[in-house]
Please model this.
Amino acid sequence: MAFTRYFLLFLLLCMLVAALNKTTGSGLPATGFTLRNGDWYDNWEIDRNNAEGNNGYLPKLATETLGVNKELAYSMGERFQTQYPDKVGRAAAILKYVQTWTEYGYDSDNFVRNGFAQDEWAQNADEFAHAFSETAGVKAIGDCEDMAFLCCTIYVGAGFDAAVIDAPSHCALLIWLPEFSNANNYWNINDGRGAGWIWVEATGSSNPLGWTPPDFEDGAWTAYPVNSLVFVPQNPTSSQSTQSTSTGFPSLNVDVLVVIIAIVFSIISALAKMKRVR
Model:
């Protein structure tokens, strides 16, 4: 009888390990970071400190969480597509969701590598999505590019065409939604469809869908349609990472932590009952 109980506990622990591998492994596709010439590169060879250049994160970081690489953020979009048949209502609901569960914060206050605060650090959409928890009421902290990439992946998962915006000292998103009636600007990004792209600005909790901030109404920025990006491979080459214990890079989702605590208490309770039976 005792053997059966211990065997069941062993199976429970195996299930926990499998769940952790599924949750934390697939949700964080950047499995290592390498420091080169003062910048941190992930194992997809994308520079997380620099937006520009051949290896800059704008706009290619979006490809880590789309296509064959889609995971949590994309699935959020699929959920919105199911829950909101009306496309305009769906678009507004997605923006409100991101504004509710993310909070603007400076990279230097929240991301540290090898003991040094990072003045610039870009999170991909799945990393950012795993950093907040509706169950625990925990918000994810990030800045404009983090919110733009998260919005990008969710909107694409929800059936929208999206374009990442590279603006002076800013990053945002456009979605193709010409039927939306309340935008202050309808943009033409020379993709052959004319004016019908609307701005998505998630950096403020009350910014409405379709509102282009005054600083960017001159159109002096570049839009990168996601469907024209060259996607990074599903299984990137592993990089030898200079790893260190750093704050600001959560490796465990809050929901998973709650499950762990619950299972630990269940195991303790089971062991206590076995002792009483003896």
